[in-house]
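Recall from the previous lesson that a structure prediction takes nothing but the amino acid sequence as input. Here we apply that procedure to Isopentenyl-diphosphate delta-isomerase from Mesobacillus boroniphilus JCM 21738. The sequence below is the only information supplied.
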Amino acid sequence: MAGYLLKTLMENGTEDLIKEIHLLKDEITVIMTALGVHTIEELKNVPMVISGDTHHWLEQRGIDTKAFARRKEN
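The prediction returns the following tokens.
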């Protein structure tokens, strides 16, 4: 994330960086609202199913993606 934001700053300047940060905040707010959570801590505990390239990448590195699908909300 930091690399992406730094690249935005270096290539497009401060105004675009600020716009990108606001866009990220808005997207996180929409996700949290859709999931019915109020804090980042709650968001960290929402069960999720990981699929596709991300699943394959994690599996190849020995990370059990089933643990994410079985985690409990507070």
